[in-house]
Design goal:
alpha+beta
């Protein structure tokens, strides 16, 4: 008789969601800390990518989410010259 073990593997979708949520929280924490220290922050994704261990493309996508969901910081797409500049201030 062959015994089979049933183990549950997380679906790729849920693993990806957890990863995205983790990245979003890492970015939010970084931004919250910076605005607490400085009151206001202007930045381009490529200049903070190494500090938050994300690509500038990931940061751009997450900033759009944070603009809609963040309650502790105000996110504004401020200008576009060769890359988006974001403006962050405390809520």
């Amino acid at each position: 008789m062959i015994q089979m073990s049933a183990t549950t593997q997380p679906s790729p979708d849920s693993a990806e969601s957890e990863s995205t949520a983790s990245k979003e929280e890492r970015l939010r924490s970084y931004l919250r800390k910076k605005v607490t220290e400085n009151g206001e922050l202007y930045f381009k994704s490529k200049f903070i990518a190494d500090e938050v261990d994300l690509s500038s493309k990931e940061i751009g996508a997450l900033m759009v989410k944070l603009k809609e969901s963040a309650t502790d910081i105000e996110v504004e797409k401020w200008s576009y010259t060769s890359a988006t500049t974001w403006r962050i201030e405390p809520a």
